[in-house]
């Protein structure tokens, strides 16, 4: 979130950050900070009062509800609580999209393993199982056959946090990802990309987000139409969104939508690199009722590429500085540390490293990211 905080401060905003970790690295980039859990609405209300906040901006899924509750309590602009709930609960989200007649996978909301078994048989394998409330691919699993349902259900159950579990039809296609804004019901898609996922039988973790999406113009137009329908059906009238869809041939199906900017580098860096629109200060202006241009100013290539260390225990990591010096690289980091285990990962937060690269075209950005990642050398035992 350093990039998000920096962008807001460059546009004249004072930024006060909260995180339950008192040593959160991005605290140093803010005007002030407090060790407050972003899910703790009463604590956020108290801190917002103390600093005289004009706006509470959640920057990931975990903070959306507390920000909505706190904003309502303090009379600040923000997402209505009922809209936040619809955008956080995938069961409510899918029900709203079903009422609106929008394309999406068939689904069932279940509360027990027995109900999940019945739902999967009704839908037909393969299915995807995940918590109705969650983020970062936690507890999300592909179930190719009945014999693997129990493990997938247990993984989803571990992250359900008091909510239900959703079982939905698996759609074989290309995942699409988008970020943008809504103002008074008008939806503007700033960036639209396609996604390559980890090659794993069960864990659907995104490993490369490439912009602009390599899809026909008609499919892009359909994706934009469906996204606009999705925000309207959820009651998202003003704010940011991150939406994922599945392209199957010439058709586009909704997967999920978050009422906030995309995670990681998407909100603070990638949206601006691809569209020319600085997302954090634009959202602040939008929510505060100030002039804000929510339409893309350009269309450049961007690649958000993740990578993994090989199987085994990491004993050394070399080449990181070389990777950062590759032309076109906007940010590069390795999150795995010596002594940790490499190999496949089960969720977004477990990915071992990342590269953000830009270029005049998608191909330039992808080439820069691949060249940078190739510089990194892992030694494992």
Could you please describe the fold and organization of this structure?
This protein is an alpha+beta fold and 381 residues long. The chain has four domains: 2-84, Rossmann fold (3-Layer(aba) Sandwich), CATH 3.40.50; 106-169, ATP-grasp fold, A domain (Dna Ligase, domain 1, 2-Layer Sandwich); 179-195 and 208-293, D-amino Acid Aminotransferase, Chain A, domain 1, CATH 3.30.470.20; 302-380, Glycinamide Ribonucleotide Synthetase, Chain A, domain 4, CATH 3.90.600. The protein is 33% helix and 26% strand. The protein has helices at residues 2-10, 41-51, 64-74, 81-88, 90-99, 113-123, 149-158, 217-234, 266-275, 279-287, 320-324, 362-374, and strands at 16-18, 32-34, 107-110, 127-131, 141-143, 165-169, 174-183, 186-197, 206-211, 239-248, 251-258, 301-307, 314-318, 329-334, 353-359, 377-380. The chain has an eight-stranded antiparallel β-sheet, with helices on both faces. A hairpin with a 2-residue loop joins strand 7 and strand 8 (186-197). The longest helix is centred in the middle third of the chain and has 18 residues, at 217-234. The two termini are 33 Å apart. The model has no long low-confidence stretch (mean pLDDT 94).
């Amino acid at each position: 979130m350093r990039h998000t905080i920096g962008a807001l401060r460059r546009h004249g905003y004072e930024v006060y950050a909260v995180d339950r970790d008192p040593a959160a690295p991005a605290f140093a980039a803010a005007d002030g900070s407090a060790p407050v859990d972003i899910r703790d609405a009463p604590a956020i209300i108290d801190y917002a009062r103390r600093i005289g906040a004009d706006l509470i901006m959640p920057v990931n899924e975990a903070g959306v509800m507390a920000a909505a509750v706190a904003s309502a309590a303090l009379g600040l602009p923000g997402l209505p609580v009922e809209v936040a709930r619809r955008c956080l609960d995938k069961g409510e989200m899918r029900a709203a999209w079903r009422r609106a007649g929008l394309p999406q996978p068939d689904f069932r909301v279940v509360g027990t393993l027995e109900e999940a078994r019945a739902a999967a048989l009704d839908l037909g394998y393969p299915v995807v199982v995940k918590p109705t409330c969650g983020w970062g691919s936690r507890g999300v699993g592909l179930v190719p056959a009945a014999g693997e349902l129990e493990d997938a259900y247990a993984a989803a159950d571990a992250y359900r946090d008091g909510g239900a579990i959703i079982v939905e039809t698996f759609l074989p296609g290309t995942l699409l990802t988008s970020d943008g804004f809504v103002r008074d019901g008008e939806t503007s898609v700033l960036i639209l990309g396609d996604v390559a996922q980890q090659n794993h039988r069960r864990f659907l973790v995104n490993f490369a987000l490439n912009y602009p999406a390599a899809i026909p113009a008609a499919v892009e137009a359909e994706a934009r139409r469906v996204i606009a329908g999705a925000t309207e059906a959820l009651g998202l009238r003003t704010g940011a969104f991150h939406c994922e869809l599945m392209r199957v041939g010439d058709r586009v199906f909704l997967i999920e939508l978050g009422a906030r900017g995309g995670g990681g580098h998407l909100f603070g860096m990638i949206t601006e690199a691809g569209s020319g629109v600085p997302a954090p200060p634009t959202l602040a202006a939008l929510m505060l009722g100030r002039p804000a241009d929510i339409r893309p100013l350009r269309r450049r290539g961007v690649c958000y590429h993740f990578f993994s260390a090989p199987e085994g225990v990491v004993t050394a990591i070399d080449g990181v500085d070389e990777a950062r010096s590759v032309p076109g690289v906007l940010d590069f980091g390795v999150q795995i540390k010596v002594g940790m285990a490499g190999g496949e990962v089960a969720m977004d937060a477990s990915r071992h490293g990342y590269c953000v690269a830009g270029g005049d075209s998608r191909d330039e950005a992808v080439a820069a990211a691949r060249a940078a990642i190739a510089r990194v050398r892992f030694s494992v035992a």
